[in-house]
Amino acid sequence: MKRRFILLWILITALIVLPELAFSSLNLSGLWNATTFSKSVPDKQGPAIIAKNGGNLLYLAKDGALYELTMAGGLVPKGQPSGITNIVAPPTYFDAGSGNYYIIYTTAQGTAGNRIVVHHFTSSTGGNIAVTGINNASYGVTAYIDTNNIIIFAGTMNGTLIRAPVDISTPNNPTFAASVTVNLAGPIKAPPVLNPARNRVFVITQNGRFYVRNAADLTAVRDFTLAGEFTTPMAMDERYLYALSNDGTIYKIDADGREEHERFLSSANSSGPLIDGDGIIYIFGDNGRVVALNSNLLKLGEYTLGQRVTTTPAIVKGLDGVTYLIIPTSDTTGVGKITILSFNPTTGQFTEVWTYNVSDTFPISAAVNVGPLGALYGDNYYFVTATNNGTVYAWRMNARGPYGIWAKYGQNINNTGFIDSTAIAFRTRIFLIAKEGYNGRELSDSLLGSTYGLLYDATVVDADDYPLRTYRNYRTNETDPANVIEGIPGSEKLVVEFATPTDAKLLIGRYVTPRGGTPPSTDSRFRFRFWKTGPGAYEGSEADNPATITFRFSDRTIELFTDATYTFYVYHRYPLDSNNEGTQTIFGFFDYNTFRTNPDAAIQTINASPVQSGKVFFPYKWEIYQWDPGQSTGYTRRTLYDQDSVTLPLSGPAYLEVHYAELNATITLLLPEFAYGKTRAY
């Protein structure tokens, strides 16, 4: 009986703490402590949540009341403007430095009394609030800081596109300047999108009219029409925009107005497309159906959650290298759940790895936010969302994100609505791996010792190729992450240039001590020749030097191949009383371009040197030692007899000893009657 009670108690405990258990290789625990993952704000509803760096949350209720929910569990009021009754879309958040912060949002409260709000606050106070009226409901803003101004873009259900600058030269007194407005041919329910250079703004109206406008003054660049109705946010990668119509058709649009489209859903939900760090596109619709597409709009996989996706999900990358989608969904019965799916792009398989049920539904404003807990560029992150009844749900995780870059609200910790590199909360690395061309062995420290890899110089540049950081005499094949260059994924690039060859001691003086003379101090030289190109490899041309490599959302490993010059050091031993030895240094060149398709054709012939002190000798024995790291000795050894020359593969340096004999002996041969062939005497 006692044993049964203990087993029952263990089972009950396991069920209670299920949301904090480790699953697969992704671990979750409550944000506030291991078992505390939810907090409520009394009498507040429909909040938007910002995941600040460090674990404190910003909580914006639908009536404009702003709070900071601390890691210690405290609730700190930050002020509330009057006349706000309905915030639908997530806000934008800025840390402007010097302890000044801003929340920016629009309202959707009928046809009158709507406004754009800029709410300044500090770590201790609520600051001041600036508002400007707009002519109808609005569903989201795009904004950025330009020196002493915040530039805000918004659209209204009257079809008005707005560019609203806000002066923040006095940080605690934000002031709206004169706005620029243009009227478009339909209601605007999807928030505008800025390109990364922030000189173009893209807008789609509810009736499918697509506009490209100059961001400075909203003058026209081009416009065209897409079929269908559009109410969900657009997404953008470095080149294309993606728009999901209400009938489930996904459009891929370039800035010149060319488009492709495919239909995979019968209807869209409240989330637009997401794009992960590998370029995979996710769309959501029907009754919680998730579809993954590649950049050519070909379906990779799908999964059905059974509830509607009512706010923007998030994508994170686990430390196990797996892509995870965090998806809040809502049921028509008034309840919801948070589901985490893993996705394998190779097999196209989604797997449900975790689900947590909640007692209310999720509003559009509660887009999943992801932020770092500790060191800004570490791997200790958390995610947060909230339900309509004002309850916040947050978990720590051993993953980082958002894994991907898409220009829409919820894209990053600032929700800035464009590809905003400053809002990406982690860095990734580019590992360069140099290989010799004959066997494809890595030029690692285990192979080459302290002179491993190739030396290179590098510069990290931004999206406009402006140099940000320089690095000199770094090495490829680095195993210490601290010595591997980092950058911001999606926006920064690494410019790599090889100039100095790498000299190494692979055999001579390392595994083999040669006889006679002074052997060379190094026996191998490697020099850059080609990058490995193609899917998952370097994105440029194989001979690029310098080469420009983009930081992506996962660490990258880029391979390159080398030309090699190997030393063949030859010791000659003659049967003389004096002057009885000699040495010879021969250099063999492995040209990767010539031999990469047939390395066996790369050979080096070494001829005997039979003349010494005016006499001619015969090379009767060759002792050959050639570098071979696959052997425990570090080399292969062969003995050959009666050879005027030997031919060796250009697979590495070699040491050869050639022993000679005299040819002046007199012998008497008794031969059979039918003997034939050549017989040497020595």
From TrEMBL:
Gene3D superfamilies documented for this protein: YVTN repeat-like/Quinoprotein amine dehydrogenase
Domain Pyrrolo-quinoline quinone repeat: residue ranges: 197-396
Matching SUPFAM superfamilies: Quinoprotein alcohol dehydrogenase-like
InterPro entries (alphabetical): PQQ_rpt_dom, Quinoprotein_ADH-like_sf, WD40/YVTN_repeat-like_dom_sf
UniProt protein name: Pyrrolo-quinoline quinone repeat domain-containing protein
Provenance organism: Fervidobacterium pennivorans
